[in-house]
Amino acid sequence: MRHVFVWDIFVRLFHWGLVGAVIMAFYTMETSGAPFLFPIEVHAQAGYVVLGLLAFRWLWGLVGSYYARFRTFLVGPSGSLDYAQSVIRRSPTPYAGHNPLGGWMVIIMLMSLTFQAISGLFLSDDIFFQGPLHGLFGGDFSKMLMRWHRLNSNFLIVLIGLHLAAIVVHRLMGEKLVKAMFTGVKTPSHTPVDSPLSGEVKTRWIWALVAVVTGIAVTLTFWLG
User: How many helices (H) and strands (E) does the chain have?
Assistant: First the structure.
């Protein structure tokens, strides 16, 4: 059983950073927010962190290491259907990175999180918090975004539930996804169909610096603005 290095350090830090920020965002809105004095402020700050992480990930998906790039794991409808049929037959095509269904789930989740983070910039609770872009397009626009922000938060809960269910299913199939997101290494039982050409999996450090700086700049712009 060969070891395959799949997730670079930046993808892993992004993933766990996003997990922490999203948990904080949900906690400060769905509970009393103790021990924070102004939970809405902490919620907003968690959103700024999410926005910065997403800015990094969208850029890293274009210029990052092999398995981080969107073009590595996004396939068309026919390829996704073929993979779904292989899963139904209980003989799924082996992938080291995201399989076709998982790849589309990643994109949907990134898009939903991006909308959630950006829409939050326009919102206000009319008491303690006002987003940095609140009122930019008028009060009616902010009110509309507030409704969609709440609806999308419920959609995100569904997506997160599906993600956790997929982790359990893959674990039952012998694939330790959580461990791989800590170590970056997977041990597929068969040769994956998405194996890179020699050298393609290496991290591009110049682009990594650009992506990281972009993410940090986005977060600080709104946090300190």
Answer: 8, 2
